[in-house]
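Quick one, tokens below. Sequence please?
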């Protein structure tokens, strides 16, 4: 396996999309590595087969990878899913999906509170 250059992410890399990197998260990101990720997935899979490993991928990430490798967004997402599944990840979700779930749950909560207040 080819040794990849260590990624450095700073606040200057932020797309100002309202939420992925804050100063505290920037410190946490610099403490992470692909080796740590691979080891964590392997540890989870070897210790407890009942645990699921779930990865979420942001639309901005897919777009950046697609642009770098001259792929469509759909091709990029397919390749990411294949990659993650091959290393033991059970599910790969787009963060747009989780955003929609969150909005749906908040709307149900609002309706329930609104109806109770009548």
């Amino acid at each position: 396996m080819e040794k990849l250059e260590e990624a450095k992410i700073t606040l200057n890399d932020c797309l100002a999309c309202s939420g992925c990197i804050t100063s505290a998260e920037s410190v946490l990101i610099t403490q992470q590595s692909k080796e740590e990720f691979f080891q964590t997935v392997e540890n989870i899979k070897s210790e407890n087969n009942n645990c699921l490993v779930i990865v979420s991928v942001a639309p901005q990430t897919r777009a950046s990878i697609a642009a770098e490798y001259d792929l469509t967004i759909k091709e990029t997402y397919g390749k990411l899913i294949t990659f993650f599944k091959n290393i033991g990840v059970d599910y790969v979700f787009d963060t747009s999906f989780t955003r929609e779930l969150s909005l749906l749950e908040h709307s149900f909560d609002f309706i329930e509170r609104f109806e109770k207040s009548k």
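The first helix runs from residue 23 to 30. The two ends are 63 Å apart (CA to CA).
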